[in-house]
């Protein structure tokens, strides 16, 4: 974050050029509007994201020598309260947040992080890494009948596991139908659903390890991704540490009992009684609170970082749009989840369509008022009807006498697109379903923008 400002400026220029190519915008179009339209945030936000992820990884790796340089212990003694979150107004004013401040914010966020030195991969016994003493029955069940037969097979000791994440919190639950036992555990709210499902599996396996079992074991889960992680034998350094713990305990159970552990994916909400019971347990309350006991893998915090960056971009946009891109801000109130031109539609293959609509939405296009404002033409008068002294978009679309016939076609197209057609051009430019009609009007009248 403490980089040469001149060098950073060069990157900004490259990004601006790329944004103009992507959106087809004119040179005069404000940068903040292009960023919003293309869903590509300012580079400062990208740098904050990279710095945040770096700090997260560093805290997780528990690397004291690097940590002490970035997060010196005295910085905690100096202030008992963490520094305030970075705000949009700071970024607008050109202030670049220091790495220490980002690190302290991340430290505060990830108080319950799983710390590992070395990474879990290197702590796991080699025998466990190369052996897979369990079966994943995913591909061996061909139809409902085979599934029912397996479910009714009394020779298996069955267990159901489930994880749940909602605004009420995150829970991991398992159900043992043989002992009629259901256990639900609350875990940290920052946990991902994958972690909740994995932890539920780990708890079920710990339960098995503590009781005497004389038959093979069948564990049923509705998490396909968990079984895939167990199946593909991935040995990435940043793989969720709970997966390594699951593999370790499975290995231990196999060594102790000589029994085989089978995993099976069952779809949720399909009327399988055991699945419904464990799902209900995961959703409604908990028996034990493991929120501080169970540590969170560092990757789970990335969702919170992304969420905070969205908040920061919205703040940045709200302030920046009061200065630049005011017309565009009346159409697009906040950065969208994805650009409108990435929707699947036959028109969007057409580059001209995207350019014309983007220019209309930006309000920066080849029309007399705008070209005159840029001192490119001497007069802002309408060259088509010679009546209007200031030919803006409103005039061309709604009033110009030269285009009466094309306007009738446009109105008919707009009415075909929706039962309620808005009256203002901004409202029309807000809704994707009207774009085709507006595009046809431009192409059949002034030709291009
Ligand atoms: Zn006119």
From TrEMBL:
Please give the superkingdom of this protein's source: Eukaryota
Which Gene3D superfamilies did the record assign?
Answer: Ribonuclease H-like superfamily/Ribonuclease H (3.30.420.10)
- Residue ranges that the Swiss-Prot or TrEMBL entry lists as coiled coil: none
Signal peptide, first to last residue = none
Where does the record place the RNase H type-1 domain? 153-287
Against Pfam families, the record matches this protein to: RNase_H (PF00075)
UniProt name for this protein: RNase H type-1 domain-containing protein
User: Where does this protein come from, organism-wise?
Assistant: Loxostege sticticalis
């Amino acid at each position: 974050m403490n980089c040469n400002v001149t060098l950073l400026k060069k990157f900004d220029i490259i990004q601006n050029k790329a944004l103009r190519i992507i959106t087809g915008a004119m040179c005069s179009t404000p940068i903040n509007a292009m960023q919003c339209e293309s869903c590509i945030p300012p580079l400062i936000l990208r740098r904050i994201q990279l710095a945040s992820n770096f700090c997260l990884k560093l805290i997780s790796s528990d690397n004291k020598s690097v940590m002490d340089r970035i997060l010196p212990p005295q910085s905690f003694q100096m202030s008992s309260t963490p520094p305030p979150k970075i705000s949009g107004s700071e970024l607008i004013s050109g202030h670049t947040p220091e790495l220490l401040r980002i690190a302290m914010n991340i430290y505060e966020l990830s108080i319950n992080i799983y710390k590992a030195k070395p990474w879990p991969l290197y702590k796991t016994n080699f025998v466990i890494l190369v052996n897979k003493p369990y079966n994943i029955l995913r591909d061996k069940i061909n139809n409902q009948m085979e599934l029912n037969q397996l479910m009714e097979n009394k020779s298996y000791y069955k267990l159901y596991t489930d994880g749940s994440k909602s605004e009420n919190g995150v829970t991991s639950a398992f159900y043992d139908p043989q002992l009629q036992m259901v256990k639900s555990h609350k875990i940290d709210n920052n946990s991902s659903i994958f972690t909740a499902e994995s932890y539920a599996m780990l708890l079920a396996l710990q339960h098995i390890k503590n009781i005497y079992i004389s038959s093979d074991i069948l564990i049923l889960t509705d998490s396909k991704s968990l079984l895939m992680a167990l199946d593909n034998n991935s040995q990435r350094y940043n793989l969720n540490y709970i997966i390594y713990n699951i593999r370790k305990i499975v290995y231990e159970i196999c060594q102790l009992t000589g029994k085989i552990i089978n995993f099976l994916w069952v779809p949720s909400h399909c009327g399988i009684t055991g699945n419904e019971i464990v799902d209900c347990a995961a959703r409604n309350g908990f028996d034990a609170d493991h929120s501080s006991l169970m540590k969170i893998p560092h990757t789970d915090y990335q969702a919170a970082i992304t969420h905070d960056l969205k908040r920061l971009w919205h703040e940045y946009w709200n302030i920046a749009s009061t200065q630049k891109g005011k017309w565009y801000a009346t159409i697009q109130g906040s950065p969208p989840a994805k650009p409108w031109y990435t929707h699947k539609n036959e028109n969007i293959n057409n580059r001209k369509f995207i350019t014309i609509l983007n220019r209309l939405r930006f309000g920066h296009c080849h029309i007399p008022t705008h070209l005159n404002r840029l001192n490119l033409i001497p007069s802002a008068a309408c060259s088509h009807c010679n009546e209007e002294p200031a030919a803006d978009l409103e005039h061309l679309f709604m009033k110009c006498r030269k285009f009466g016939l094309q306007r009738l076609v446009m109105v008919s197209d707009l009415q075909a697109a929706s039962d309620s057609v808005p009256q203002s051009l901004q409202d029309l430019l807000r809704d994707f379903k009207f774009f085709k009609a507006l595009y046809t009007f431009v192409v059949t009248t002034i030709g291009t923008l």
